[in-house]
Write a structure and sequence with these properties.
heterodimer; A: Alpha-Beta Plaits; elongated; B: Rossmann fold; 6-stranded parallel β-sheet; about 40% helix
Chain lengths: ~220, ~130
């Protein structure tokens, strides 16, 4: 694939290196002359263009019309959105991916049709929250506009489902156990899989049944 | 012209002049992310000030964008002006007119859209020069 990266900050440069390792063609655009010079020594096989990626002239110089994907990683959300928009509207790029700097700007990315806005701050916050929390339950992901959620439930010693097979456990409607994480193992559960204390269960459930699901797995909420 | 509810985003030179002028006869709200910019409006300005980031939709809604008749984008940053104007156009059908300042003539062409009044300094200057000289 041919991938264009706008913005040669830490994320942009790391991404360029990774993509090169996987043998993709990469071009990277940055406003700063200093950054571009440094980069030219560091990344020999990457096309480096100095200029404002939000300008059609610079994008044309990077041969954006031949790219499969454009990734925007600049520290300005307005710039990222405009770069993705120009790539799409002027150069017919099919897929635009962008970093979202301020989570409060995420809505703008959605309204301005950036294909994949990645809100790294929120993703990080969720991981930190998970790592720091002592709770048995963690909401991992909400999809289908929040109607469906994927949760992680740690099975405590006193849970009513400990040592029971899945067949013996009654789950609410529209809830599915996706996998059981037991130490280093990931188990795809079947009816005869036995749940043990200390298991981490990943389950998908309709949001209305979430509390019911958690209650049946840990016995309280 | 009947009294209008006007929101001005960006209190630089242009925004400030417009705010003072329009606030004589209209209901004006000025948004800027810098307190000093809002303070520079002085006593001639007879309207409301909102301190905040206009790229955050909450700030726009706090400024009453759902009731506004006119939205003016004069932040001095083309990309910010374009993004806010396009999103406002999409979300708030109550706004009758949206005007934005765009310095880059290429961007003026790319982002032209029905219902957005794009003001480009270079373009205006060229027109004025032509009128004066030819």
């Amino acid at each position: 694939m041919f991938i264009i990266i706008a913005g040669a900050g830490r994320l942009g440069v790391l991404l360029a290196k990774k993509l090169r390792e996987d043998n993709h063609r990469v071009a990277i655009i940055d406003k700063s002359e200093v950054v571009c010079h440094k980069l030219a020594e560091e990344l020999k096989s990457v096309l480096i263009i100095q200029g404002d990626a939000a300008s059609p002239k610079i994008l044309r110089e990077a041969k954006v019309e031949k790219a499969d994907v454009l990734v925007s990683t600049t520290p300005s959300d307005a710039d990222n959105i405009i770069i993705c928009n120009i790539a799409k509207d002027v150069f017919s790029i099919k897929r635009t991916v962008s970093r979202v700097n301020d989570p409060q700007h995420l809505l703008l990315y959605k309204h301005m049709d950036v294909d994949v806005p990645i809100d790294s701050t929120s993703i990080l916050a969720r991981i930190v929250e998970e790592e720091a929390s002592f709770s048995d339950v963690m909401n991992l992901l909400s999809i289908k506009k929040g109607r469906l959620s994927i949760v992680r439930v740690d099975i405590p010693q006193g849970s009513p489902v400990v040592n029971k097979t899945l067949r013996e456990v009654s789950l609410p409607a529209n809830s599915v156990l996706i996998s059981i994480i037991r130490g280093p193992e990931i188990i795809v559960p079947s009816g005869v899989t036995k749940i043990m204390a200390g298991d981490e269960i990943i389950a998908a459930t309709l949001i209305d049944n979430e509390k019911h699901l958690i209650r049946s797995l840990i016995g309280k909420i | 012209m009947p009294m209008k509810y006007i929101i001005i985003v960006g209190c630089g030179k242009t925004g400030k002049e417009l705010a003072v002028e329009f606030s004589k006869e209209h209901n004006v709200i000025v948004i800027d992310k810098f307190r000093s910019a809002l303070e520079s409006l002085g006593d001639d300005f007879n309207g409301k000030k909102v301190l905040g980031d206009a790229l955050n939709i909450k700030t726009l809604e706090n400024a009453g964008i759902k009731e506004a008749n006119i939205l003016i984008l004069s932040t001095g940053n083309d990309n910010v002006n374009i993004v806010i104007s396009k999103v406002a156009k999409k979300l708030y059908s109550n706004i009758e007119k949206i005007a934005l300042q765009v310095y880059d003539t290429d961007k003026k062409k790319i982002f032209s859209q029905e219902g957005l009044i794009i003001v480009n300094k270079t373009y205006i200057l060229v027109e004025v020069f032509k009128k004066c000289l030819l």
